[in-house]
Structure prediction request, 572 residues.
Amino acid sequence: MIPRIHKRGSETIGLIRYLYGPGTHEEHTDPHLVAAFDPLTPDPGRDPQATYGQLQRLLDQPVNALPVGRRPKKHVWHLSVRASPEDPILSDDDWAAIARRMVAATGIAPDGDDAACRWAAVRHADDHIHIIATLVRDDGRRPRLHNEARRAQTEARLIEADYGLRRITPGDGTAAKRPTSAERHKAERRGQQRTPREELREAVRRSVAGAASEEEFFDRLTTAGLLIRRRVAPSGDNLGYTVALPGDRNAKGEPVFYSGSKLAPDLSLPRIRERWTPASDDPAQQSALPQVTGPASARRRATSAAWQALLVIDHGDDGVIAAQVAAASEVLDALAQTSAAHTRRELQAAATAFERASRSHIRAARGHDHALRQAARDLVHSGPALGRGEDGATTAMAIDMLFFLIAAAAHWHARKQHAQQAEAAQQAAEHLRAAYPSAAGHPMALLHQRGSRLALSWQRHHATAVRHALPELADRILAEPGWPALAATLDEARTAGHNPTALLAQAAARRELDTAERMSDVLVWRLRRMADLPADPQNSQGRRASGARAVSTPGRPAHIGARLAHISPRHH
Prediction:
């Protein structure tokens, strides 16, 4: 249940006409009174003899009784209370009781106060009511309305529990602005599933993902097909921007523009500029990172960046963690817009859900998020990935690691009591979980076949390695359906010159495994990333042969040492 206190007004009759009228899009049906300060209050909706003027004069009587100079300029108070779409339709008696609880909780009409403000509750739809009140009490004093919005939210949580309604997570003021009822009805009339505000928010969010400069950001907005207006200072500097969808027009035929801050708090131009804070990392380390040469390479970079972000979330300061969480949202946006068709829907849903988790009252310490933002940029500039081959397999690798990153963000938000953010991160993680089988099915099936064909002696050898490296988890791992795929990966790592037992121990030491749904899958992707093995098993054939020659050649221990040295925390 969502209570919303609207801006105060100066004309009681105007709001009454709206509440009893047809609505801006003919959405008001059967407007009628469900409760009021006085049981004898006239109801223009059901009583043919009652008029809007009668109701207005009755509500305004305490205001008009004051001398003109003492009357408040904005004396009309307006609260709407809306049920969730999945809630059952409540009766008029239920809404009447809810209205009385709301006016009591907010201070409009406390229980037992005979001199309280006058109010009326009008219902003109199944799922909500509007409460109108005048802000002068019958004794001529003003009501105490300090923090009435917060008190309305608190009462709504109690009402949800009492009526068995959907429990809404309390907000903290950092959420994106909801579409108005007029925007929703306009979209419904046009057969659109989302409002222009929601479409624009997603388009702007994608345009800023990984953008390295202001001009690149505006270029991406143009490429996305948006109409853009910049607010420019006399010096020529941009002060802000507004965007519109080409087909979204008002009654005069003019485009409906929204400023970035009206889309989401972190999409204003000043907040976007914060993302371009210079990297705090060592430039020498940044220059040592391998070049991105295509979608598969970009996904490997994103996987490594997500791994580093996981370590920061485990041990970093709150501001630095907040920066990693915000940048993770950019990576999800970039991955979604460059993903193949069979994973795109779930990845887009994950990115949309996690948008709410990217903001909190903890200000992000920008500059510490360079690796993730660079990964998002690489994803965008590397172009769309194919659904199969190395592109598709590295997508599965990235999804696997991002799942852990998003889950870690959910735990961090929960520790900080960021209820809405934690819930949003959990929803995003579920979408990633749903996207994973589509991306991982083909490469894991190939690995499963390869592992099943391994000689029994090598299968036993690799099982022994698992028991030595992970004694407490070995039985569960070896019993999983994905064990043959892990055995195949361990065999590839051995052939390439790595010590499988050491790799397993290293992979497990960096992050817990026992909460993973498929530990063998997690280890497959970690080992293939750490050992620099192709994500797609079909690309491993040639490398397996060259790796075997390297291992069998005497006098080459330096090669093995170099490969192990490559597995450093900076890259993995």
